[in-house]
Design brief:
Elements: H1 16-30, H2 42-47, E1 50-55, H3 70-79, E2 84-86, E3 92-94, E4 97-102, E5 108-113, E6 118-120, E7 126-129, H4 132-143, H5 152-158, H6 164-169, E8 180-184, E9 187-191, H7 199-202, H8 213-219, E10 236-242, E11 246-251, E12 265-270, H9 274-283, E13 289-292, H10 294-303, E14 309-310, E15 317-323, H11 335-342, H12 345-354, H13 357-360, E16 384-385, E17 388-389, H14 406-422, E18 429-436, H15 440-457, E19 462-469, H16 474-477, E20 486-492, H17 533-550, H18 556-572, E21 576-581, E22 586-589, H19 620-635
Helix pairs in contact: 12-14, 17-18
Length: 636
């Protein structure tokens, strides 16, 4: 059995002042007064801590129950509380649930909710109490195929909620058969199909957030399309949402943890040129933060070095180069010739060994590209077992020998050419390197990649052809369409377990026959059902190893080692090339990012809770001290 209780200090003072403030805010908003605009008294305005920033890309929806887009999820992360959450040091702590227990077989998870937590509308008006039924209603909405939720897969494939898949697929229509129940107003119980040791971490994702049941029924697919089409129970209330104009939030002073919400509001202002304009607006005191792109950082280092800081490097996204084993690109790029070549292990290893990843990564991180380098798909510092980082487990020993080595690359080239000529492959093999139009860093990275690979292997062997995919619907037009040969791809973690990094290469099997269903294994274009025996053998072994690892739910060291063995198969056989984690971008800001919630996955890092708005921009010295203190804290 496991049980956790909140450890935070809380004020014992009367709630009367808080109630009065809430009433005042309701009156102001209802009267049509924009509270973040100057209304006469400069002192009153200056006393409020309103974080102001530009944004240049509009959210596609406010509906946190359906979106998997990180920018969209920023809304839900700040206006809806979850059963559990993470503090600034990555510790899971109670949220809307004060305590929880798990059954000895690991199949039932029971959460006791805080009583007296309320839903509010966008004016701050109290609507109803948050109850266990709101978690049930929300999950039914997520799994109902009519609502086309892009995060239902977390419930079905990751959290393993009982009968979630069957309901989502339409195999059953009675939602009471799904493993979520309100035992009473303040107790919600989840039943899983298999023991899932990381289940609690899934609860920080949007698909497990609550929503007021009667509103969901009334709004249907219109839920979350405007500020008056959803209710709020989190740290903030969204009061204004004008697409391509502004997003406005006020602090929810009645939130159970309002004492840890230090911003009185958030004001985001739309400008399509925000990346260009925000730095100068920050210098003029018009916004409280701005990203500093690589093309201006040298100027800032010269003129404003004392206030340059960095974002926090979070290992929640892994970037890796994929070989396309199912090419569907135009005939001019010779897909049939590529298919023969990519199914040859020596050919793949030649590219992997010739790829100087730190050279290409200078386009993303010119100062310290080595700091982002990853030798595994699972990022280092993502998770550990018995005090050992996952990427340092024994199955990964020697994995670095797969990477940049010009001598080995030429040896692989010679062996590959001899083998492939017998199969009728013509040289140079055309390598379609795809990147996103408008992404200057990615374009520069692709140019460096081409120069470097052709420089080592020679243009008698390969010809790297750079292809700019569309700026809109990029994934659908490129990776998912098979319109590339070698391309940087990425995956984001959904929960705190190495299985999340096997998901992009996952397969779905028929529950009765065990046969692979459709192209479910083909998310990253690894080809299993093919005429290439070697490729098929590698992937068959990989999938079997993943299934074996998933089945281990009590011995975490054994589980992690089995996942490490599986991932090592992909890397050691050059089925893909691990690359980097996201760079910690340069910025100027009045927020200490290390005060904010932290987790190496999910939506926690999108929250403004805990953060304080400083009067001045953080200096580099202040940032470094905060970073060091955070690293010491998270290591304990």
């Amino acid at each position: 059995m496991s049980k956790q209780k909140s450890h935070r200090n809380r004020k014992n003072a009367s709630k009367l002042p808080i109630i009065i403030v809430a009433v005042v805010l309701v009156v102001l908003i209802a009267a049509g007064i924009v509270i973040f605009t100057q209304q006469g008294d400069d002192t009153a305005k200056d006393d409020r801590k309103i974080y102001t920033a530009l944004y240049g890309s509009e959210v596609s929806t406010l509906n946190y129950l359906t979106t998997s887009n990180t920018w969209d999820q920023t809304v839900g992360a700040n206006v809806i509380d979850t059963l559990v959450e993470y503090d600034s040091l990555g510790n899971m702590v109670p949220g809307l649930a004060e305590t929880w227990t798990t059954s000895e077989d690991g199949l039932k998870w029971t959460f006791k909710l805080r009583q007296g937590q309320k839903w509010y509308d966008y004016t701050g008006k109290e609507i109803a109490e948050v109850t266990a039924n709101d978690f049930v209603s929300a999950l039914e909405y997520v799994l109902n195929p009519v609502n086309e939720s892009n995060v239902a897969y977390v419930v079905v494939n990751a959290a393993n909620v009982l009968n979630a898949k069957a309901y989502n697929n339409g195999e059953i229509t009675d939602f009471t058969q799904v493993g979520v129940k309100a035992l009473d107003d303040y107790t919600v119980e989840y039943t899983l199909s298999v023991p899932t040791p990381y289940f609690a971490s899934c609860l920080t994702y949007g698909c497990f957030m609550p929503a007021y049941g009667p509103q969901l029924q009334a709004e249907g697919t219109a839920f979350g399309t405007a500020v008056d089409k959803m209710y709020y129970c989190g740290a903030f209330i969204m009061t204004e949402y004008e697409p391509q104009v502004k997003h406005t939030y006020i602090k929810n002073v009645n939130n159970w943890d309002a004492a840890n919400v230090h911003l009185d509001g958030i004001s985001r202002i739309y400008n399509a040129e925000s990346e260009t304009l925000a730095p100068q607006m920050a210098l003029r005191g018009e916004v409280d933060s701005a990203g500093l792109s690589n093309d201006i950082i040298d100027d800032w280092k010269l003129n404003h070095p004392e206030i340059i800081t960095r974002d926090r490097a979070i290992p929640d996204y892994s970037y890796f180069y994929c070989f396309n084993f199912d090419p569907k690109f135009d005939a001019e790029y010779e897909p049939d010739n590529w298919l023969k070549a990519v199914n040859n292990a020596n050919f793949r290893h030649s590219i992997m060994s010739a790829f100087d990843r730190t050279y290409a990564m200078r386009a993303l991180e010119p100062d310290d590209p080595q700091s982002l380098l990853q030798n595994t798909v699972t990022p280092s510092a993502f998770t550990s077992v018995n005090g050992v980082d996952f990427t340092a487990l024994e199955p990964f020993n020697g994995i670095e020998e797969n990477f940049f080595n010009t001598e080995k690359a030429l040896e692989y080239k010679e062996a590959a050419m001899a083998e492939l000529k017998e199969q009728g492959v013509t040289f140079p093999v055309k390598v379609l390197v795809t990147y996103k139009s408008g992404d200057t860093d990615w374009e520069n990275e692709s140019i460096l990649l081409k120069q470097q690979l052709e420089g080592v292997l020679g243009t008698d062997y390969i010809e790297c052809i750079l292809y700019a995919g569309p700026s809109e619907s990029f994934l659908n037009a490129t990776r998912r369409a098979g319109n590339y040969a070698f391309m940087r791809t990425n995956w984001g973690a959904d929960y705190i377990d190495p299985y999340t990094w096997a998901d992009p290469f996952a397969i779905t099997k028929d529950k009765d026959t065990g046969a692979i269903v459709g192209n479910s294994y083909n998310k990253m274009d690894l080809m299993l059902d093919s005429d290439y025996t070697q490729t098929k053998e590698i992937l068959t072994a990989y999938y079997a190893q993943v299934e074996e690892a998933k089945a281990i739910t009590s011995d975490m060291l054994d589980r992690y080692n089995k996942f490490a063995e599986a991932e090592a198969m992909l890397v050691n056989n050059a089925m893909l090339v691990p690359y980097n984690i996201s760079a910690a971008g340069y910025q100027v800001t009045k927020l200490n990012i290390f005060e904010g919630p932290y987790a190496p996955f999910g939506m926690s890092n999108l929250r403004f809770k805990y953060q304080t708005l400083h009067d001045d921009f953080l200096t580099t010295e202040e940032y470094n001290k905060a970073f060091e203190a955070w690293r010491e804290g998270i290591a304990k």
